Amino acid sequence: MKGNAATKPSGIPWLGEVPPDWEMKKIRFLFRFQSGGTPSTTNEAYWEGTLPWVSAKDMKKMWISDTEDHISEHALTESAANTVPPNSLLLLTRSGILQHTIPVCVNSRRMAINQDVKGCIPVADNVDVRFCAYFIHGSQEQLLPLWRQEGATVESLEFETVKNTAFALPPPRTTRHRGLSGRAHGAHRWAYGAQAAAGAIA
């Protein structure tokens, strides 16, 4: 972003200013949310299917096309496990790793999720899930203290706080057709997200 480009206050102290055509929206208005579960591990037939089942161990990279474990459709109907469609934002909400990192990823195909993963399924037309994933990834230093649930036995995210967090959303053309020059630093982490979504990981 050139130094003389027009900007406006984002309303978020740690984020600073954003381009004037970007929109601030709370996460709750961008996604619907899906919880998951674990089929009984004593029923071997539940674990002999082909449906990818996302757990913490799969969330070590930004893009998920497959998982270590798979379940059957039968297991899906007889447990608390649920599926998310392709191009959903997946957040790990309960794990010791949340002491220092917020695992976030995007799935490339229909997958089931376990109880420690929250599926965020876009409901608004202007939501670029890739951008949102990079926004979270690039803003972990600011978001983790805000989102982490205090006093939990296992490190967890306070999901009501997550849902009430505002994102800075660029127009669809920004993430699809043009990047912002340079990697963001300091408060302007939105620039890194836009650059990544626009071309660096296309």
How would you describe what is shown here?
It is a single chain. This protein has 202 residues and is α+β, with helices and mostly antiparallel strands. The chain is 22% helix and 22% strand. The chain contains six helices and 13 strands. A hairpin with a 7-residue loop joins strand 1 and strand 2.
Summary tags:
five-stranded mixed sheet; single chain; 22% helix; alpha+beta; disordered C terminus; 202 residues; 6 helices; four-stranded mixed sheet
Q: What is this structure's SSE topology?
A:
Elements: E1 8-9, E2 17-18, E3 23-26, E4 31-34, E5 51-54, E6 63-64, E7 69-71, H1 73-77, E8 82-84, E9 89-92, E10 104-107, E11 111-113, E12 117-122, H2 129-138, H3 140-147, H4 159-163, E13 166-169, H5 172-177, H6 190-200
Parallel strand pairs: 5-11, 6-10
Antiparallel strand pairs: 1-2, 3-13, 4-12, 5-7, 8-11, 9-10, 9-12
The gross shape turns out to be: globular
Termini, distance in Å? 20 Å
Task: Report the structural category.
Answer: alpha+beta
The overall average pLDDT, rounded, is 83
Bin the helical content. 10-25%
Task: Characterize the biggest β-sheet.
Answer: 5 strands, mixed
Strand order of the largest sheet: 4-12-9-10-6
Number of strands: 13
Low-confidence stretches: 176-202
Rg (CA only): 18 Å
**Number of helical stretches of at least 4 residues:** 6
Helix and strand succession?
Answer: EEEEEEEHEEEEEHHHEHH
**Could you tell me the strand content as a percent range?**
15-25%
Would you kindly provide a brief summary of this structure?
The chain is an alpha+beta fold and 202 residues long. 22% of the residues lie in helices and 22% in strands.
